[in-house]
Amino acid sequence: MIDDSAVKEDEIGRKSGARMLAVAGVCGVLGAAVGFGVGNTADTRSQFKMAVHDGKDIYAKVTEVSKDVEVAKDLLKKAVDASTGGPGKKASADFTSVEQLVALKRPFSANEFHRRLYRAFGDNVVDNLFEYYNNINLLWDGFTALGAKTGGAARRDALQKSAIATDGLLNTDYGLVLSKSGEAFAGGLVFLNVVPPEQQQPAADAKAAKGGKGKKKGKDAAEAIKVKVSSSQGGQEVERALFTGQNDVGESFEKYVFLVDKVRSRTILGESANLFAKFRGDLMELNGRMEKTVEVQGRLLKDLGPISSMSD
Fold first, then answer.
1. For 136, what's the count of Cα atoms within 13 Å in the CB-facing half-sphere?
2. pLDDT tens string 86-117
3. How many helices (H) and strands (E) does the chain have?
4. Short-list 75, 111, 110, 115, CA closest to 95
């Protein structure tokens, strides 16, 4: 017989060694996994803390910039109010406010939010932040452009003359009277003043002017609003009826005056006022952007407030 005990012991030894190596390998993998998990968690905490720190910095910066925005908003409103003409007002260019706007230091540098961590922010906060940053830069670009348009004595003089023309346009009404040459009609522009209500023809007189006849379908000159027209500013005036759809305009066109739409006709009526109109248009556009900027600023401060109170 062959003694196989030595062989069995050798096989048992090999199997035990394999088991030990397998166990050691598993322990090594588990140890590496645990180590990676701990390291990854620590890195995530570190990243979040850095994001909170950046959030506090950004909140402080927006709070600081909001003060400059408030100053710019007030100056812009003064310039807009000055440019608004109309009854009892005079349109003008507020050069002092424009100078102060131009002198305001630009709040944000070019790389203000570069390499910031935004993990502590919601997506809407990040969107608002970059909209705010963009609007601020566009506003300050606009202030610089206003300064260029109002710089120098010649530009200011031209703008003031245009403002006077604009003021005259805003405070003056225009009409159109018809005349006939053969079969052709022609229209002529006139200055128009509405007759005060107390000077209007009483209803009884209007009825008498119609010959006391019964009711007639539609309107006629006797029922119309009375206005005075002249061919020159401050010149001799004659009375006309304002056309509001009367039936007899075809036969009695000389009795009527048609109101001219100043808004649609401003390019022709106010050619000299165009320069100021463009200046006012710039102011209104900037004012609209300012209102949006202040709205976004309010949302930012509200959303960044909780982040600024976190522990980093």
1. 25
2. 667 788 999 999 999 999 999 987 677 766 66
3. 7, 5
4. 75
